[in-house]
Amino acid sequence: MEITPALVKELRERTGAGMMDCKKALVEAQGAIDLAAELLRKAGAAKADKKSSRVAAEGRVALKSDAKTGRHVLLEVNSETDFVAKDASFGAFVERLADVVLAERPADVEELMRASVDGRSVEDLRLELVTKVGENIAVRRFDVLESKGNVGAYVHGTRIGVLVDLEGGSPELARDLAMQVASLAPRYVASEQVPQEVLEKEREIIKAQTAEEKKPPEIIAKMVEGRLRKFIDEITLTGQVFVKDDKKRVRDLLASQKATVRGFRRYEVGEGIEKKSADFVSEVMAQAKQSR
User: Fold this and answer.
1) What is the DSSP code string of 207-265?
2) What 3-state class would DSSP assign to 135?
């Protein structure tokens, strides 16, 4: 059977695979487009398996909300390079996954990968995308917040996403706090949430820093505790200076509006992932050789 350009184009639009891959699959399938599509999916699985060990530390976050249910979703999906993270197909995949989590609330990433989208699993869609973009794609994590309070939802570009659950206050305050969390990245809501081991470790560091200070022990002790309080303020949302008014602390703002922060979640693309250092030129040449 003749493999026409129109048939190749149809398979490409259906699968998102490259033109040469589509033509090769159609030749192998003797023009049967359904079989060719299946062959491409199998090839995608094989490629994905080979790429699965490659570090995916770029990518994007997505945030979706449903006002009727009070459900909010924060999701991170990773790619190997920022180039693919900006690709329209990758962006559409991330947004689609956020919609699935919002609608179905899977228990974890494994359950999300088994979820059905138009008769296909999310894992099948991931494999298809790997085939198309030529990189490892990893669905890393998601959080679902259900709240009847004021929820601050904020995305900075595509790399930082924040959800803040606020009791009392106003939608405006909730969004301001989400922007605060995005900007200053607090680790805890308030001082009482800071683990004792974190405080002890920081106290030891401060003591070491003040060891050579030529001051009376009681003065040194006050200096240590003063610096420790400053440290606590820096790592807690309520202790931080409010970004929109540096004369106020967040705790003062909350008190003035009789509001309480129940919790927050902040995602930053690639945080905590050990990135592989590589020679960019060598990497490009290696990819070029693979594509021959």
Assistant:
1) HHHTTT--S-HHHHHHHHHHHHHHHHHHHBTTTSEETTEEEEEHHHHHHHTT-EEEEEE
2) coil
The 10s digit of each residue's pLDDT in 86-141 is 999 999 999 999 999 999 999 999 999 999 998 999 999 998 888 888 888 999 99
Nearest to 152 by CA among 121, 180, 185, 124: 180
DSSP per residue over 187-208, as a string?
Answer: SBSSGGGS-HHHHHHHHHHHHH
pLDDT band at residue 278, thresholds of 50, 70 and 90? very low
> CA dist 169 to 28, 111, 119, Å?
63, 36, 43
**Beta bridge mates, 164:** 152, 264
Residue-by-residue DSSP string for 9-60? HHHHHHH---HHHHHHHHHHTTT-HHHHHHHHHHHHHHHHHHHTTS---EEE
Q: Give the phi and the psi of residue 177 in degrees, each rounded to 5.
A: -70, -35
Q: Report residue 174 as tokens.
A: 């909730």
CA distance 251 to 191: 11
